[in-house]
């Protein structure tokens, strides 16, 4: 079955443009023009991904994001923010609220489709990918579940992808550019702060234990959870 993508966008021209092109790309599409209606439709139809404007009438896109990440049924929903608010602080705020990706208007429809496909591909179970144990950190790629000190971590899809990538390369220094290229799946020119935001969120969810993900000055980050990775079938 084709993936269902929900589009919440108050500008009719943009909403229709996105819908037309997503349908041409093989997606089923549902749309809403404000945050409240969009939330109702999301919980009713359970889409596979969401394209979300931030500047919405009624409930803002950030409020929508916050509610989605607080609800168990939608905390793993892949979300691409699509907005005219392109300032760095706006992007960082979007990521802080749980966005997985961010496109600013005017935007390339082909790039939007590519990013959606990349998010959906990473959100699906990875068959044959063994579980990883690094110290007290356990990653189950098939179930898309991460545990630290036997506690299940509440992660967004992007946060899970990032932590899993760290777990596959324990002790290795990973630059921000490499993480953007290999976790996000394409180049973010000048967007390395994106990695910093996601690492900060991971640290907070791990319990503010910065010894798990260590900052290497002028180089990047590395996972130092205390033991080499062990793969378990």
What does this structure look like?
Helices cover 40% and strands 21% of the residues. The chain has 233 residues and is an alpha/beta fold. Strands 2-1-3-4-5 form a five-stranded parallel sheet, sandwiched between helices. The protein has a five-stranded antiparallel sheet with strand order 9-8-7-6-12, covered by helices on one side. A two-stranded antiparallel sheet has the order 10-11. The radius of gyration is 18 Å and the shape is globular. The two termini are 29 Å apart. The C terminus is likely disordered.
Report the count of strand segments.
12
Q: Could you say which structural class the secondary elements and strand pairing correspond to? A: alpha/beta
Order of helices and strands: EHEHEHEHEHEEEEHHHEEE
Determine the number of helices (DSSP H or I, runs of at least 4 residues).
Answer: 8
Features:
233 residues; alpha/beta; 5-stranded parallel sheet; 8 helices; 21% strand; disordered C terminus
In a nutshell, what does this entry contain?
The chain is built from 8 helices and 12 strands.
List the topology elements:
Elements (H helix, E strand, L loop, with lengths): L3 E5 L3 H13 L3 E5 L2 H11 L3 E4 L8 H10 L8 E5 L4 H9 L4 E4 L4 H15 L7 E4 L2 E4 L4 E4 L2 E2 L4 H12 L7 H9 L8 H14 L6 E4 L3 E4 L6 E3 L1
Helix pairs in contact: 2-3, 4-8, 6-7, 6-8
């Amino acid at each position: 079955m084709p993936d269902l993508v929900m589009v919440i966008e108050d500008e009719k021209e943009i909403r229709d443009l996105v819908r037309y092109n997503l349908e041409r790309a093989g997606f089923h599409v549902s749309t809403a023009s404000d945050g409240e209606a969009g939330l109702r439709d999301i919980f009713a139809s359970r889409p596979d991904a969401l394209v979300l404007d931030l500047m919405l009438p009624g409930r803002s896109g950030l409020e929508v994001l916050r509610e989605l990440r607080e609800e168990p049924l939608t905390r793993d929903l892949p979300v691409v923010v699509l907005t005219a608010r392109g300032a760095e602080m706006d992007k960082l705020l979007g990521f802080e609220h749980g966005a997985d990706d961010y496109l600013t208007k005017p935007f390339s429809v082909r790039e939007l489709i590519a990013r959606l496909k990349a998010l959906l591909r990473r959100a699906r179970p990875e068959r044959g990918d063994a579980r990883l144990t690094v110290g007290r950190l356990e990653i189950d790629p098939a179930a898309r579940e991460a545990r630290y000190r036997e506690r299940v971590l509440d992660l967004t899809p992007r946060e899970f992808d990032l932590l899993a990538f760290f777990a596959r390369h324990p002790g290795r220094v990973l630059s921000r550019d490499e993480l953007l290229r290999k976790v996000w799946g394409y180049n973010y020119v000048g967007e390395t702060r994106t990695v910093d935001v996601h690492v900060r969120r991971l640290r907070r969810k791990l319990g503010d234990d910065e010894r798990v993900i260590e900052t290497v000055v002028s180089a990047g980050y590395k996972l130092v959870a205390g033991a080499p990775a062990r793969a378990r079938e």
